[in-house]
Design brief:
The structure holds two protein chains of two kinds.
Chain A lengths: L1 H34 L3 H4 L14 H8 L3 H33 L2 H12 L3 H14 L6 H25 L3 H8 L4 H12 L1 H17 L2 H6 L7 H11 L4 H21 L1 H11 L5
Helix pairs in contact in A: 1-13, 3-13, 4-7, 4-10, 5-7, 7-10, 8-9, 10-14, 12-13
Chain B lengths: L5 H7 L4 H37 L1 E4 L3 E4 L3 H8 L1 H33 L5 H13 L2 H11 L6 H8 L14 H26 L4 H8 L4 H30 L2 H6 L11 H11 L3 H31 L1
Antiparallel strand pairs in B: 1-2
Helix pairs in contact in B: 2-13, 3-13, 4-8, 4-10, 5-8, 8-10, 10-13, 12-13
Classes of the chains: A mainly alpha, B mainly alpha.
């Protein structure tokens, strides 16, 4: 009897987990299915679930039109630069804030996390018009710093606070400068933290839509903006649209699968999210 | 987030106050470059927005000082007031449902079971995916005639829904997307909380013959309370700020049925280019967010004291 109860419990637990995971995966599977079917199958009702046979026409169509490759390069440049700069500025800042226990500085970062991304855009939009930077990638990179810098600083504060201070103190006693103590003692120890910060900053920069949507011109669109424009102009072609959507999000999904341990650690610690 | 400075307190206790102060000044140099970036990209926009909100500004037409006119106009703008109500409606649903589901998911993933790592990774995929990309797929699924969701409803014997194409169902439908998208973040925060709970109370409860359900209500929930509040605060702020999916799927439509504050703000600023007026919206919106965050922080303090 007890065994039976246990068995029933396990079955219902498994079913519960399945109910939690199924919606998450099925949206992506449906995206994949739409991208591999002909337009005829995509607009069939009842829906065709398994592409038979799977066709790559939609992906070919995406690459042939819409300057998809150019926008992909834009996205790569923007996300890598914004993440790199954030690491360059944010890692030392996180260290300094952790060492000084400068709560006020941390509060600024926290408020930045609270502020809606859209509210940065009006002033920065005008600023870039005055300076005359519109039409280049620079404004988009600068606005992406609004997302990446707080993520990096926030994660690094937590990481540096968790490191034992004894090693750096020993270095200082031995005559190292505080820069050397940071560069050669604290930073190597914090490498896992830097990895987490880099991955998360990159993902949320890559995913960002609103900054580039407002600031980008025809030549400077990032991928999310380009894909959204496809929806506006080609409402009915589901196949190419899904193929493009899949191509945009595939790098982040792969990164998540590969680095899931770091990502879970980073998100659990900080509750970070961009934009 | 809570108590994150405690480790440092202990570690720094050995150094003399004087030496620490000496170093403190030098540590500022670590913060200065980043401080400049934050000043330029984050603090400058805050200040400039305040300034703009007191001006009548039209693109290319210059600006005139308008005092509090923008705010007066805003309070009387019915479209804005309705957008606040919609935002609160959206937020209430988009907070409560992910909190409940996120807690259930965290409890599930806290137990050991086969393929747990894989299941957990799959579960967090939605929050890492590009919002625009998934919003496009949702849009196709919502199609009233050809969408897969209406087919699913049909299979279980329910009448088809108009999803985002009807003013009555648009907000619950967008909440569904938001729940799908952000429940994983709640789950992760609570999972971190569960991992940090002490084991002793559970052993004591087991000896006393408590059922798992009793243990959950009397041990897990109270101990998890601080984490629940953190998750609640983060979720509330994010739900208030929701933009990408709403914009891509409905752009505030049909009509203005899903026009939240953020969408209203976007339209004022970058569709109508009423930049002064939009700046006033930013200020009020920010005040609303801070207000709700303060209320939640106050609850957190009370939870802690209890």
């Amino acid at each position: 009897m007890r065994k039976l109860k246990r068995f029933a419990w396990n079955i219902s637990f498994g079913f519960g987990v399945l109910m939690l995971v199924a919606p998450a995966i099925s949206v992506f599977l449906w995206m994949l299915s739409l991208s591999l079917k002909t337009e005829l199958d995509n607009t069939d009702f009842p829906p065709v679930f398994i592409p038979n046979p799977p066709v790559l026409d939609n992906f070919i169509a995406v690459f042939e039109r819409n300057d998809f490759v150019k926008y992909a390069i834009n996205s790569v440049i923007v996300s890598f630069t914004a993440t790199g700069l954030a690491i360059l500025f944010g890692v030392p800042a996180g260290y300094g804030i952790a060492k000084m226990r400068a709560t006020n500085a941390a509060v600024v970062i926290l408020i930045a996390r609270i502020t809606p991304g859209l509210s940065y855009l009006i002033p920065l939009f005008l600023l870039f018009q005055w300076i005359g930077l519109t039409g280049t990638l620079a404004p988009i990179i600068v606005t992406h710093l609004v997302i990446t810098v707080p993520i990096v600083v926030w994660i690094m504060i937590g990481f540096f606070e968790g490191l034992p201070a004894e090693l750096e103190e020993a270095a200082l006693v031995d005559g190292a400068t505080i820069w050397q103590a940071f560069r050669h003692v604290a930073m190597p120890l914090a490498r896992p933290g830097i990895t987490v910060a880099t991955i998360l900053a990159f993902i949320f920069s890559w995913n960002n839509f609103i900054f580039a949507m407002v600031l980008a011109g025809r030549e400077t669109r990032t991928l999310p903006v380009a894909v959204n424009n496809m929806l506006t102009f080609e409402q009915i072609s589901w196949g190419p649209l899904s193929a493009a959507a899949l191509l945009v999000t595939a790098p982040v999904l792969l990164l998540t699968l590969l680095a899931q341990k770091q990502i879970v650690a980073g998100l659990t610690a900080g509750g970070v999210k961009g934009g | 987030m809570a108590g994150s400075t405690t480790t440092l307190d202990g570690a720094a206790a050995g150094t003399t106050p004087r030496r620490r102060r000496n170093y403190a000044r030098q540590y500022w140099w670590f913060v200065v470059p980043c401080g400049a970036v934050v000043l330029g990209t984050i603090v400058f926009p805050w200040v400039f927005t305040l300034y703009m909100s007191l001006h009548d500004y039209h693109l290319g037409g210059g600006q005139t000082f308008a005092g509090l006119d923008n705010y007066r106009k805003l309070i009387a703008d019915e479209r804005f007031l309705f957008s606040i109500i919609r935002t609160l409606y959206f937020t209430a649903l988009a907070v409560v449902i992910p909190m409940v589901l996120g807690l259930l998911a965290a409890l599930a993933f806290h137990r050991k079971f086969p393929m747990r790592g894989l299941a957990r990774t799959v579960f967090i995929l939605p929050m890492m995916a590009t919002p625009v990309a998934v919003a496009l797929v949702w849009t196709m699924m919502f199609h009233p005639q050809l969408g897969v969701l209406n087919w699913l409803l049909q299979q279980v014997g329910l009448p088809p829904s108009l999803w985002v194409y009807s003013p009555d169902t648009v907000i619950p439908t967008l909440v569904m997307v938001e729940v799908w998208h952000w429940t994983p973040l709640v789950m992760l925060i609570l999972l971190g909380g569960l991992a940090s709970l002490p084991v002793d109370p559970y052993e004591a409860a087991k000896i006393d013959g408590a059922t798992p359900v009793q243990a959950f209500w009397h041990i897990t929930l109270p101990l998890l309370a601080p984490f629940l509040v953190v998750a609640l605060i983060i979720r509330t702020i994010d739900a208030l700020k929701a933009f990408d999916t709403i914009y891509v799927i409905t752009q505030g439509g049909p009509g203005t049925a899903s026009e939240t504050i953020n969408i209203f703000l976007y339209l004022q600023a970058f569709a109508y280019y009423n930049l002064g007026y939009a700046s006033a919206v930013v200020v009020v919106f920010f005040a609303i967010i801070i207000l709700l965050a303060m209320v939640l922080l106050w609850t957190r303090a009370r939870v802690r004291n209890a």
